[in-house]
């Protein structure tokens, strides 16, 4: 019987690689000297991600009085870590294909994943983990 570590190693080998744009977003977001303009320049290379970022900042969650139409303004308002997380989750979800025979549906998978992320962040804060590391 395979150990958990062996199963994880096998699954890593099967994971799809991220697009160059997503890789560049991570690179820019992890560089403390990067500016919002640099991140905006990279995001603009992916029209789908651009639309998702603008849609997110204009969602009811943020409750802004006025619609944001500028990508740069959306990047500034959401922050670099949120943008990085949106890009990574978007890339990952684009690669996940749940089989029709599985008991897990895509919507529930997404809700569960989001819930785990939020709970993990809350636990990290309570434990006093450095805010830079909670993402």
Name the CATH class of the largest domain. Mainly Alpha
Order of helices and strands: HHHHHHH
CATH topology of the largest domain: Hypothetical protein af1432
Spans of at least 5 consecutive residues with low confidence: none
Strand tally is 0
Q: Which class best fits the helix and strand makeup?
A: mainly alpha
Shape: globular
Overall number of domains: 2
Summarize the SSE layout with pairings:
Blueprint: H1 4-14, H2 20-30, H3 36-43, H4 47-57, H5 71-78, H6 80-95, H7 106-126
Helix pairs in contact: 2-3, 2-6, 3-5, 4-5
Keywords:
135 residues, mainly alpha, Hypothetical protein af1432, 7 helices
Protein architecture, described:
64% of the residues lie in helices and 0% in strands. Helix 2 runs antiparallel to helix 3. The longest helix is centred in the C-terminal third of the chain and has 21 residues. It is globular, with a radius of gyration of 17 Å.
Summarize the structure.
The longest helix has 21 residues, at 106-126. The chain has 135 residues and is mainly α. The protein has helices at residues 4-14, 20-30, 36-43, 47-57, 71-78, 80-95, 106-126.
